[in-house]
Each structure stands twice: as C-alpha cells, then as structure tokens.
Design a protein that fits this description.
Elements lengths: L2 H19 L7 H10 L1 H10 L4 H14 L8 H13 L11 E8 L4 E8 L1 H11 L2 E10 L5 E2 L6 E2 L9 E10 L4 E7 H11 L1 H4 L3 H5 L1 H17 L4 H10 L13
Antiparallel strand pairs: 1-2, 3-6, 4-5, 6-7
Helix pairs in contact: 1-2, 1-5, 2-4
C-alpha cells in the first residue's frame, strides 16, 4: 500500500484521534497514543503497511510521542501519519539515531501545531548506501580561514587554507560514485539561512531542531541539494527527497545553488 492509498484511512484516523485526544481526562500522552493506535482503523492500516514490524513501530511511536512535550500538542493521528513516511523508507524514528525526525511546528494559517517528517543526514547516507552507486560521501563545516577558492567552472573547492578560528563560514557536501564521477557543493552560512527562510516551515516557526542542531541541518540541506541535482537516484532516494521537501514550497530544490 502506497502513501497515496493510505491517505483516506489516515484522514479518518486523524479525526478519531482528535476526538480521543480531546476527551477531558488526565490520561498520559503515552495512553493517548496507545488509544489512537488501538483504533480498529489504525490496527487495519498497520497490519497492511507494517506486517512484522508493527510492534517495534508502536513502541517507537509511543516513546517518541510521550517524550516530546511539543509533539504532544499535535494530533496523535497526524503524528502517526508522519511516522509512516519513515516506515515507507525503512528508517527508524528514534530521535537518538538521527535517521528521521517528526518535527512539530506552528502553522500560522491554522493556528495549530502540526507534525512534519524530516529526514536526517544519516537517513540520506543510509539511502544512498543502499543504491550501491556511491563510493564516498562526506559533508562538514567549513571554518574561517580554510576556504581558499571555489572554482565556479568545475564546482571544486580548495579547503587547504589554515583555520584561524572556530567560526563556521559555510558547509560542503561531496559525493563520488563507483564509476568515478565526483561532485562537490559549497554553501555559505548566509545561503543556508536564506534557503531556510524561503522554504522551511520548521525553520521559520523556530523549531528546536534548527536552533539546537543548526550545523547538522545545514549540512543535510547542502547534501540534499547535491544529491537531488547531481546524484544517482534510487526510487527510495527520490521518495525521500519528495517527502523531505513537503516542508518546502519546492520542487525547485534542484535549481537551488
């Protein structure tokens, strides 16, 4: 069953979950999520989508929801919907692992707190490794003094300068495929911020993941753009970029940079 096929039952689950969460009791967040997952429609959907992975998904989702006070402001059915996107890519939703996150953000139009699936940089690496097409992948901060030149013709960057401080001035991503093709992409801090302001709902809503993990999110943004424009794309990688870009006004991402 595809995510498109899941949309109708998921919508009904969200409606039922909203009624469940609104009941005037002092139930714990874990119990609210358990009740959502115990709905007949939810059980049927999980059986069709998760099969033998249902128990681990339930445990991970309950742990995620009960440990994040901001996520608890979201409809538990909507949280489950976003978590299923990670499942479709066979990635865990455990925040500590860093493969994928469910990020709550404030939606100015509706006035609600909404959950949103976001892929971590480890998720991109994992999906790229599965293709068998990549020999090397790397991304990192660029510190003041390290950058000597960016070759606009080839896209190559020279980072052999001497680092003179701990100030981060930009980020690079690098890929090399098994057939010898290689490409590097460099973005300044200012370009990452400009891109985030233009496209990212989570950045503009002040989501903690950007505040607490800016360098990691910036590196992922550069790598995502590099893969989308120059990388070898498997079906899962394309789906991952599409899902990750649900945060964006995009499909223009391949034209960024």
């Amino acid at each position: 069953m595809t995510l498109m096929d899941q949309q109708k039952p998921i919508n009904s689950i969200q409606e039922a979950a909203a009624k469940t969460a609104a009941k005037p009791t002092n139930r714990t967040p874990a119990n609210i999520m358990r009740e959502t997952l115990s709905l007949a429609s939810t059980q049927q959907l999980m059986q069709e989508v998760l099969h033998d992975n249902r128990e681990s998904f339930v445990a991970s989702l309950i742990d995620l929801y009960s440990s994040d006070t901001y996520l608890q402001k979201c409809n538990p059915g909507a949280v489950m919907k976003e978590a299923l996107k990670a499942v479709s890519l066979k990635l865990p939703i455990n925040k500590a692992l860093g493969f994928a996150w469910i990020i709550p953000y404030n939606d100015n139009k509706s006035g609600q707190t909404l959950p949103q699936f976001q892929l971590g940089y480890k998720g991109y690496i994992q999906l790229a490794m599965r293709t068998g097409a990549y020999k090397t992948m790397n991304m990192d901060n660029v510190y003041e003094g390290e950058l000597r030149v960016v070759n606009r013709l080839t896209g190559e960057i020279d980072l052999n300068g001497e680092r003179i401080s701990d100030k981060v001035i930009g980020y690079f991503a690098y890929i090399e495929t098994v057939n010898g093709f290689s490409k590097t992409l460099y973005w300044t801090v200012e370009k990452v911020i400009s891109h985030a302001k233009k496209f990212s709902k989570s950045y503009n809503s002040g989501a903690a993941i950007w505040k607490q993990n800016f360098d990691e999110m910036a590196q992922k943004t550069v790598m995502r753009n590099l893969i989308a424009k120059w990388g070898v794309m498997s079906v899962d990688l394309q789906r991952a970029i599409d899902l990750d870009n649900a945060d964006l006004a995009d499909k223009a991402i391949a034209g960024e940079g």
